[in-house]
Amino acid sequence: MARVDLCKTSEVDEGSAIRIETGDLLVAVFNLNGAFYVTDDTCTHGPGSLSEGPIVGDTVECDFHNGVFNIKTGEVVEPPCMIPIKTYPTAVDGDTIYIEV
Fold first, then answer.
1. CA 32/CA 83 separation, integer angstroms
2. DSSP characters for 44-64?
3. Is a pLDDT exceeding 90 seen at residue 47?
4. Residues of the chain with pLDDT > 70: what percent?
5. What CA–CA distance (Å, rounded) separates 77 from 40?
6. Which residues have CB under 8 Å from 10's CB, separation 6+?
């Protein structure tokens, strides 16, 4: 497994997400009450960017088809999406958010 540094904690405001493109990864980094989560950014149902969707609690709504995913688990909460999004084990080292891939 390789560590992939994504961003600084200060770059992701609480209750929001940012899109990170690094290498062949396109991910969304979420800040939920000071805890950070990383998922694939692209919706599994269409070309929507999850980092641009509204966040309510621990869910994000796709800005393209309005499907809803659980940010922590990747599970589908509301259709039309049927396939969960990929989530990544996320850690913070100092002020750097990273994943292992």
1. 23
2. SSSS-BGGGS-EETTEEE-TT
3. no
4. 100
5. 16
6. 95
